[in-house]
Amino acid sequence: MDEPFFLAVARQILRDPAHPLSFAFNWYGWAQPMAEINNTPPVLPYLLAGALKISGGGEFWTRACFFPLDLAAAWSLLALASRFLKKPLWPVLIVLAGPAWALNLHHAMAERVMAGFAFPALWLAVVAADEADARAFLVSAVLAALALLSKYNALFVIAPALVYGRSRGTSWMRLAVWCAVASTGIVLAQAWNLSAGASGVGAAWGASSQAAAMAWSAPSHRLRALLAFSGGLALPWIYLSVRLEPSRRGLFASAFLCAVLFGPWLDLAAVRPIDRLAGFLFAWGACVSAWTLSRGTRGRGFPLWASWAASVAVLQLLYWAVMARFVAFLLPPLAFGLWERLEDESPKRLDAAGRACFAAAAAFCAALALVDRAYADAQRSAAAVAAARVRPGAAIWFSGHWGLQEYLLAAGARQLDARTGGWDSVRAGDLVVVAERNTNRLDPARPRLSNASVVDVQSAIPLRLLGDGKDEAGFYSSGMGFLPWALSTAPVETFTFVSPL
Question: Which residues contact 279 (CB under 8 A, 6 or more apart)?
Answer without folding.
Answer: 224, 228, 262, 472, 482, 483
